[in-house]
Design a protein that fits this description.
The complex is a heterodimer of chains A (113) and B (114). Chain A is mostly beta strands. Chain A has no helices and twelve strands. In chain A, the strands form three sheets. In chain A, strands 2, 5, 6, 10, 11 and 12 form a six-stranded mixed beta sheet that branches. By secondary structure, chain B is mostly beta strands. Chain B has a single domain, classed as Immunoglobulins (Immunoglobulin-like), CATH 2.60.40. The chains are: A mainly beta (113), B mainly beta (114). Chains A and B meet through strand 5, strand 6, strand 10 and strand 11 of A and strand 5 and strand 9 of B.
Chain lengths: 113, 114
Amino acid sequence: AQSVTQPDARVTVSEGASLQLRCKYSYSATPYLFWYVQYPRQGLQLLLKYYSGDPVVQGVNGFEAEFSKSNSSFHLRKASVHWSDSAVYFCAVTLTGYQNFYFGKGTSLTVIP
Amino acid sequence: EAGVTQSPRYAVLQEGQAVSFWCDPISGHDTLYWYQQPRDQGPQLLVYFRDEAVIDNSQLPSDRFSAVRPKGTNSTLKIQSAKQGDTATYLCASSLEGAAETLYFGSGTRLTVL
């Protein structure tokens, strides 16, 4: 079955520390991959997306993600987090030729000052 | 450029009552989505339109939910007889036609069914 898995429901890190949020997908073909962020009482906003090419993609606010076909993963990283990064992060996928997006359950990030 | 606008922001109702949600997408975006986001979950697609046509409503509980986009711009999602299990945030998103285009989300309507 097709699925998007974010194994960590909650992550807590100290300000200035590095961050990795995990995402694994299960699809028969290589999907298009996205990371969205949701701040409290707001809609989701795009952080970055991957279609093809260089497996490391850069996003907004210093975020980057790395696609691994062999691991079926698309992990999000940041070298040094700020308290304002506290939010819920969603991994999402869609397939070539489709416009239906599938979202993971999200990872709630808390950055401790 | 104005973003995706949704109203109302909040709705509280008793089981069995009806409620409608309204969405105004970004101007020029031909594709419009309605997602249901239960608490502590990711968004789950209910229905999406390209212009005024429904492309996929397979996840829409058709006995109680309906959605329209009559002129290919604004859209309304209606729940005829709400249940407690419908408690969630309802998100509208829009995008330009094309595979894997970025979704632009509204702030959502938080529905509580008592």
